[in-house]
From TrEMBL:
Amino-acid positions noted as binding ATP in the UniProt annotation, renumbered to this chain: K467
Keywords for the protein's UniProt record, in alphabetical order: ATP-binding, Calcium, Glycosyltransferase, Golgi apparatus, Kinase, Manganese, Membrane, Metal-binding, Nucleotide-binding, Phosphoprotein, Repeat, Serine/threonine-protein kinase, Signal-anchor, Transferase, Transmembrane, Transmembrane helix
Reaction equation(s) it catalyzes: L-seryl-[protein] + ATP = O-phospho-L-seryl-[protein] + ADP + H(+); L-threonyl-[protein] + ATP = O-phospho-L-threonyl-[protein] + ADP + H(+)
PANTHER family: SERINE/THREONINE-PROTEIN KINASE
Main localization of the protein described in the UniProt heading: Golgi
EC number(s) recorded for this UniProt protein: 2.7.11.1
Organism: Brassica campestris (Field mustard)
Protein name: non-specific serine/threonine protein kinase
EF-hand domain span: 739-774, 775-810, 811-846, 850-880
Length: 895
C-alpha cells in the first residue's frame, strides 16, 4: 500500500509535461490570431478613415447645396413680405428647354420675386442642366438623386414614368414640408391670376386647385382673356396647389403616371380624392409648351398643344370681383348662360352653329355621342369618370367664330332600369317604324342579343339583312354605348367596298334594328374548301382584301379589334372576291398614340400586347398575320389545348416554319408572316407596308401552284370545330335568364356594404371570401382592374354585371349541360351528325362539313360526341368576350 503514492507521482510527471506543451501551443496560436486581429483592426481603421473622408466630402457638397438653397431663398424673399407661392421648374436632361422656360418665367417673376420665389428641381445629375441652373442667381437650385431601382407594375411600362413621379413627390415634399411654403405653382408665370385665385381658394373650400390651362384652349375655340370657369376635372398643366391639399394627396401619390400629363392630374381626377371639389381655369391659357418631345411624349402635339393661344393681355385680376366663381354663385351664373343659348340638334351641327347669331347649346346623351359631337367641332374628346374631362357638371363650353359660345350638355339619363329598357331610346331619339319601311322575312341567324333576319325594302324590293337586338338584354349603360358605337363606326366606314354597308338603324319599344347589306355567299373558309384548288397566290389575293380593310379602318381612326375569318362573308356565291368585313361590336375609335388596356378579341388571333393590356392599332395587323398563317397552312400559328396555353404561346411568339407544309411554302410568304407577327408592335409592319410587300402586291411573287391537300383538310377541321363552338356559346348566352341577372344584382348589393353604388377593392375582397373564393390579393386586383372599365378605382353596377356575366355562364355546370342538351335532341347522352344538322338549321348556320366537326371533337373515335368531349372542346380557346362586348350577330344566309 505504501508504494501507491510513489506510483502516482511518476504518473503526474508526463502529465505535467503534456500540460506545459499544450499551453505553449495555445500561446503560439493566440499570438498568431492576435497578429491577424491586429492587422484586421488596422485595415478596418483605414477603411473607416476613408469612409469618414467620403462622408465629409458628401456632407460638404450637401452643405454647399443647402447653402445655395438658403442663399437663394434669402435673396428672393428679401423685403419683408412673405411669399405667396413657390414656383418650381422641373428639369432633367434638356438644358435648352430649361433655359427657354426659365427666361420666360423670369420675365414676369423678377418684379415680384419676393412673392414668387423660383426653384429649379433637377432629377438626376446631367451636368449641362446643373451648370445652367447654377448660372442663375435669381433662383434656388434643388437636386434629386434617385438611385432606387424601378420595378414597373405593368408589362411594357416606361421606367421614366416612375422616375418622374418620384421626382414630383420629392420636389413637392421639399417645398411644402422642408421650406414650409403654403402654395406651390408648377412652371407658370401667370402670377397676377394665381394671386387672385389664391384668395378665391382661401374663401371657397370647394375649389381644390387653380390651373392656367384649358384643354380646349386652341386659338379657334377661345376669345375672352378675362373669362374664368370652374371645372370638374383638373387640367393637366400649369397649376397651383395648397399645402392642405398636398397633405391629402401625398400619401396616395401614384408610383407612375403612364397615361396623363402629370401624376397630380390623375390623383385629383379620382372621385375619392377630389370629393366633389372643383378647379378654376381660364378661357385663354397662360401655359407654355416649348416643344413636341416635352409634351406627353409627343402625343397630340400638333392637334391640341401647338395651336394653344397664350393670354398676352394685361389683366388686373386682383381688381376683378371673382365672387361669381364661388360654388353657390357659379352654378346659377353658368346654368343661366346655358339656358339662354339656343338649342340645336340633328346633323350638320357645326354648320348650324356657325349660322346662328348667338350662343348655342347641344345635348348629348352619353360618351359615344359626346365624342362624335366633339369630333365634329374638333375639341378635346377625352372622357373621365363618367363625364367629359373639360366639363363643369357635364357641360363643356368653347367658342366658335370668335365670340359665340357652344355649350355641350348632358341629356337627362334615359337609361334608368327601374321598369326595364323597353321605354328607353337606345339610339337617343325617336326613329321611323321599321315595319313602315321594310318587311321582315325568314331568320338568317341567332345571336346572343337577338336575331338576324332577311328583310325587303318596301319601296324598292331590294333585300337586306336586319339585325334585331333585344333591348331587355342590354343590362348596363356600357351595353347601350357599345350598340351606339357599333352603329356609329359602321356609318363612319360606309363606302369602303370590302366593309358591309349599313343602310339604317331603327328602334321600337322592344328592339334596335340595324339594316345592312345582305351577304349571302357564305363564310371565307367554306368558299376556299368548296373551290378545291388553292394556292399561295389565292391566299395572297384574299389577305390583300383583309389587310385592305385594316388599312381603311386605321386611316379613318378605327381599330377593329376582332378580325377573324368568320367575320368575313361573301356577298354572293359566284364572286370569290366579294368579301365583306362584318361585326364591329368590339371596334373603337382611336387617336394616334392612344393606348388601350381592355383585353378583347378571340384567343387564336389576339396580339401579345393585348394580353399585356398596352396596345394600339398594330394589334389588327398581328391578327391579319394569324389569318394569313392559317390561310397558307390550315392551322393557327399559336395552338394549345387550353385558352391559357394559347395565350402563353402567343406571348412566347415562336412561329413554326418547320412542320408541313412550310418546307414547300415560298420564302417571301414566310418573310411577310414574320413581319406581321413581330412581337414588338413598334417593329411590326403597318397595314400599308403589308400591302406593298412583294408577295402580296399585284403581279407579286406568290406562286400559283396548288398547296398541299392537307392544308384544305386542316382548314375544314378548324372551321368545323369553330362553328360548333359558336353555336354552343350562343345557346349558353341565351340561357341566362332574367332571374339569374336579378341574382347578380343581389350579389352586387351584398358586396356594396356602404351602399355607395360602387364596390371598392376591400368590399370585393370581402365579398368574394363570403362566396367561398380562395383568390389571392394579386388575383383580386387583376380582376378589379379588368372589371373597372372607366378606371375610377371602383366597380359600379354596370361594370360588375359586364364582368361577371361571362364567367357566370361559362363556368357553371348547368349552362354547359344546357348547351349539350340543346344539341342532344333525343337525350341519348351523345351528339350525332343528324342532331348537328338539326341544330344548324335552327341556328341559321351552314351544315356543310359536319363530319369534320365530329372528327375534330370526337376523341374516342366512336363517331359521336359525348359530354366530356363537348366540355373539352368548350374549354379549348374560349373567346374572351363579356356580355357587353359580344354583339356578334350572324349575317349568314344558307348556302
Amino acid at each position: 500500500m505504501a508504494r501507491v503514492p510513489c506510483d502516482l507521482r511518476f504518473l503526474l510527471i508526463p502529465a505535467a509535461f503534456m500540460f506545459i506543451y499544450i499551453q505553449m501551443r495555445l500561446f503560439q496560436t493566440q499570438s498568431q490570431y492576435a497578429d491577424r486581429l491586429s492587422s484586421a483592426l488596422e485595415s478596418e481603421n483605414h477603411c473607416t478613415s476613408q469612409l469618414r473622408s467620403l462622408i465629409d466630402q458628401v456632407s460638404t457638397k450637401q452643405s454647399r447645396i443647402l447653402a445655395l438653397e438658403g442663399k437663394g431663398i434669402a435673396k428672393l424673399t428679401q423685403g419683408g413680405q412673405g411669399p405667396l407661392a413657390a414656383v418650381v421648374i422641373m428639369a432633367c436632361s434638356r438644358a435648352d428647354y430649361l433655359e427657354r422656360t426659365v427666361n420666360s418665367v423670369l420675365k414676369y417673376q423678377s418684379p415680384i420675386a419676393s412673392k414668387y420665389p423660383l426653384f429649379i428641381s433637377q432629377d438626376g445629375s446631367n451636368q449641362a442642366v446643373k451648370s445652367k441652373s447654377l448660372s442663375y442667381t435669381q433662383l434656388t437650385y434643388m437636386q434629386h438623386l434617385d438611385f432606387e431601382p424601378v420595378i414597373t407594375e405593368r408589362p411594357g411600362e416606361l421606367i421614366a414614368y416612375y422616375k418622374i413621379a418620384r421626382h414630383y413627390k420629392w420636389a413637392l415634399d421639399q417645398l411644402f414640408y422642408k421650406h414650409k411654403f403654403s402654395r406651390v405653382i408648377i412652371l407658370e408665370d401667370f402670377f397676377d391670376y394665381f394671386e387672385a385665385a389664391a384668395r378665391l381658394m382661401d374663401r371657397d373650400g370647394t375649389i381644390m386647385a387653380a390651373s392656367s390651362w384649358n384643354d380646349n384652349g386652341q386659338k379657334q375655340f377661345v376669345h375672352d382673356p378675362y373669362a374664368l370657369y370652374r371645372s370638374d376635372f383638373f387640367p393637366g398643366l400649369g397649376w397651383m396647389l395648397k399645402r392642405s391639399t398636398w397633405d391629402e394627396l401625398s400619401p396616395k401619390w401614384p408610383k407612375a403616371y403612364p397615361y396623363i400629363r402629370l401624376s397630380i392630374s390623375m390623383a385629383m381626377r379620382l372621385k375619392e380624392n377630389h370629393k366633389g371639389r372643383q378647379f378654376v381655369r381660364p378661357e385663354v391659357c397662360r401655359t407654355y409648351n416649348f416643344g413636341e418631345h416635352g409634351s406627353s411624349l409627343g402625343q397630340f402635339f400638333s392637334q391640341y398643344l401647338e395651336p394653344i393661344k397664350l393670354n398676352d393681355v394685361k389683366v388686373d385680376w386682383n381688381a376683378m370681383d371673382l365672387g361669381y366663381l364661388t360654388e353657390g354663385n357659379y352654378t346659377k351664373y353658368f346654368s343661366g348662360l346655358v339656358r339662354q343659348a339656343r338649342p340645336i340638334q340633328g346633323s350638320d351641327l357645326v354648320l348650324k352653329a356657325q349660322n346662328i347669331n348667338g350662343d348655342v347649346r347641344i345635348r348629348y346623351e352619353d360618351q359615344a355621342e359626346f365624342e362624335r359631337i366633339a369630333g365634329e367641332f374638333g375639341i378635346f374628346e377625352e372622357w373621365k369618370d363618367g363625364v367629359p374631362r373639360t366639363a363643369y357638371k357635364g357641360i363643356v363650353v368653347f367658342r366658335i367664330q370668335t365670340t359665340r359660345r357652344v355649350f355641350l350638355h348632358k341629356r337627362e339619363d334615359t337609361m334608368k332600369h327601374s321598369g326595364g329598357n323597353q321605354a328607353c331610346f337606345v339610339l337617343g331619339q325617336k326613329t321611323p317604324s321599321i315595319r313602315d319601311l321594310y318587311s321582315l322575312g325568314h331568320k338568317l341567324g341567332q345571336g346572343q342579343f337577338g336575331t338576324t333576319y332577311m328583310c325587303r325594302e318596301i319601296s324598292t324590293g331590294r333585300e337586306y339583312a336586319c339585325k334585331s337586338i333585344t333591348k331587355r338584354k342590354l343590362i348596363s349603360k356600357e351595353d347601350v354605348e357599345d350598340v351606339r358605337r357599333e352603329i356609329q363606326i359602321m356609318h363612319h366606314l360606309a363606302g369602303y367596298k370590302n366593309i358591309v354597308t349599313i343602310k339604317g338603324a331603327y328602334e321600337d319599344p322592344l328592339y334596335v334594328h340595324i339594316v345592312m347589306e345582305l351577304c349571302s355567299g357564305g363564310e371565307l373558309f367554306d368558299r376556299i374548301i368548296q373551290r378545291g384548288h388553292y394556292s399561295e397566290r389565292k391566299a395572297a389575293e384574299l389577305i390583300k382584301i383583309i389587310v385592305g380593310v385594316v388599312e381603311a379602318c386605321h386611316s379613318l381612326g378605327v381599330m377593329h379589334r376582332d378580325l377573324k375569318p368568320e367575320n368575313f362573308l361573301l356577298v354572293n356565291k359566284d364572286d370569290d372576291f366579294s368579301l365583306k368585313a362584318i361585326d364591329f361590336g368590339l371596334s373603337v375609335f382611336f387617336k394616334p398614340g392612344q393606348i388601350f388596356e381592355d383585353v378583347v378579341g378571340s384567343p387564336y388571333y389576339v396580339a401579345p400586347e393585348v394580353l399585356l393590356k398596352h396596345y394600339g392599332p398594330e394589334a389588327d395587323v398581328w391578327t391579319a398575320g394569324v389569318i394569313l398563317y392559317i390561310l397558307v397552312s390550315g392551322v393557327p400559328p399559336f395552338w394549345a389545348e387550353t385558352q391559357q396555353g394559347i395565350f402563353d404561346a402567343v406571348l412566347k411568339g415562336h412561329i413554326d416554319f418547320d412542320s408541313d407544309p412550310w418546307p414547300l411554302i415560298s420564302d417571301s410568304a414566310k418573310d411577310l408572316i414574320r413581319g406581321m407577327l413581330c412581337s414588338r408592335p413598334s417593329e411590326r409592319l403597318t397595314a400599308h407596308q403589308v400591302l406593298r410587300h412583294p408577295w402580296i402586291c399585284e403581279n407579286g411573287v406568290a406562286p400559283d401552284r396548288a398547296l398541299d391537300p392537307a392544308v384544305l383538310s386542316r382548314l375544314k377541321q378548324f372551321s368545323a370545330m369553330n362553328k360548333l363552338k359558336q353555336m354552343a356559346l350562343r345557346v349558353i348566352a341565351e340561357s341566362l335568364s332574367e332571374e339569374e341577372i336579378a341574382g347578380l344584382k343581389e350579389m352586387f348589393k351584398a358586396m356594396d356594404t356602404d351602399n355607395s353604388g360602387a364596390i371598392t377593392f376591400d368590399e370585393l375582397k370581402a365579398g368574394l371570401r363570403r362566396y367561398g373564393s380562395t383568390l389571392k390579393d394579386t388575383e383580386i386586383r387583376d380582376l378589379m382592374e379588368a372589371a373597372d372599365i372607366d378606371k375610377s378605382g371602383t366597380i359600379d353596377y354596370g361594370e360588375f354585371i359586364a364582368a361577371t356575366i361571362h364567367l357566370n355562364k361559362l363556368d357553371r355546370e348547368e349552362h354547359l349541360l344546357s348547351a349539350f342538351s340543346y344539341f342532344d335532341k333525343d337525350g341519348s347522352g351523345y351528339i350525332t351528325i343528324d342532331e348537328l344538322q338539326q341544330a344548324c338549321a335552327e341556328q341559321g348556320m351552314s351544315d356543310v362539313f359536319l363530319e369534320d366537326v365530329i372528327k375534330e371533337v370526337d376523341q374516342d373515335n366512336d363517331g359521336r360526341i359525348d359530354y366530356g368531349e363537348f366540355v373539352a372542346m368548350m374549354q379549348k380557346g374560349i373567346a374572351g368576350r363579356t356580355m357587353r362586348q359580344s354583339i356578334n350577330m350572324s349575317l349568314r344566309k344558307n348556302a
